[in-house]
Amino acid sequence: MALTQSGPARDGWSSRTAFILAAIGSAVGLGNLVRFPAEAGANGGGAFVLFYIFCVILIGLPVLLSETLIGRHGQAAAPESFRKMAEQSRRSTAWEHVASLGVFSAFVVLSFYCVLGGWVLYYIGTFLGDLFTTGITGGAFAGSSVEEVEGIFPAMIANGGMTVTLDLVFLAITIFFVARGVSGGIEKVAVYLMPAFFLLLVGITIYGMFGGAMGQTLDYLFTFEPDKLTGPVMLAAVGQAFFSLSLGVAGMITYGSYVGRNVNLGVTSGIIATADTTVALLAGLCIFPIVFAAGLAPNGGLGLMFQTLPHAFQEIPGGSLLGLAFFIMVGFAALTSSVALMEVPTAWVIDRFRFTRPIAAGMVTFFAAIIGILSALSTGSLAWFHPLGFLPMFEGMGVLDTLDTFTGKITLPVGALLTSIFVGWIANKRLVDSENGLGGGLHLFWRFLVCWLCPIALIAILLVGIFPSILGQ
Ligand code: PFF
Questions:
Q1: For residue 241, is it within any domain?
Q2: Any residues with CB less than 8 A from the CB of 153 and at least 6 apart, and which?
Q3: Which of 117, 185, 377, 417 is the most exposed, fewest CB within 10 Å of its CB?
Q4: Ligand 1 site: residues with CB under 6 angstroms?
Q5: Does this model's pTM top 0.90?
Q6: Residue 461 is part of a domain; what is its CATH number?
Q7: Phi, psi of 210 (to 5 degrees)
Q8: How far is the CA of 26 from the centre of ligand 1 (A)?
């Protein structure tokens, strides 16, 4: 096999629908299903959720359009696309480093994302095993005490051999699709898995509506208590919005670079953001009723998905099957996102070094595995290692939490901030406008958002969010 490629025609999405499904697949993932409910629980519910929605519409959506248009214009990996636009606008090509930061962030997120993907695989296996022993009718884990069910999670994450192996398995599944290319692999996984995902999610949510504590959930998620909206809560919400929409990591620049000229990016951005936010809210509406109905507390962080929920499935008739369906759904969502995360650095390696796709994806996988192993061990034998523990913001955090916080609360918002400044102020206005697909009032509104609201709000949120954490308040 040739190690390098000499520049054949660039691969791309086979249709507009394929692009939309792949982009939704990238956006919808563990961020919606695990991180969103966990962050909502940890940050007090309603205030976080409503500010999150505000961030998606007024900050996330304009940045999403900005990223996809940079990619579509450049038709190349993210840094190259940034550079082309800067060059054609007669501005410094140093702006490409905004995208380099994004590529770096995507790589870091990939490294720990697959560890979480591995945890999901473990739960798929656990519920499958339980289905064979417990059967379809009763609750899951018949005959086990609450402590035993909740104990599955700490026992799993402490078992380094298990978490490392599952991390590598999840990475292997991811590279299987990425190595096959954009239309031959990446889009296939999204086109088949996303519809299956939506069916499962809607089914489980309807179940929650009838069987769970929906009233209590609506109160919890949508009651706005202004005094709970502190700087760190705002930073958590904006970081979550970017993580969830795959922004600030060059993800949407990369996916946008495979889009044809005939696609209206304004419209597709709206569809992607709406789908992603709907799924996050549905995830909340699907998880919390089950949790409340079982009389459990909602503020359990990651424990919500991996401890509280399995315990709740214990109380529910058909719990083994429902639990299995639930974790398969989470696995699908995680895979379409990890594929996107791997594609960002892979596309960069292909463009920069002219390696073939399988070699480029292999290199990314190799390094992601090395860092991933540290994350996988950080919940067990490496738990004592707090790489940035000398800063209050990262105090007591192991490798996995440190990387999650560092990207989610710093590099993603900073990447998105610089992107909005670039598109709003640096890039040639005519060039940008020819790509954005917006007309009339919407166009003016979008310009106002990218030029003014996004940069100002992001700088303010970064300041009020980071300083109290740095000072340890
Ligand atoms: N948006 C994904 C999620 O919510 O799980 C995570 C992600 C995927 C971030 C792809 C960035 C990216 F490029």
A1: yes
A2: 303, 306, 307, 310
A3: 185
A4: 26-27, 29-32, 106, 109, 243-244, 246, 249, 251, 337, 340-341, 344
A5: yes
A6: 1.20.1740
A7: -85, -40
A8: 6
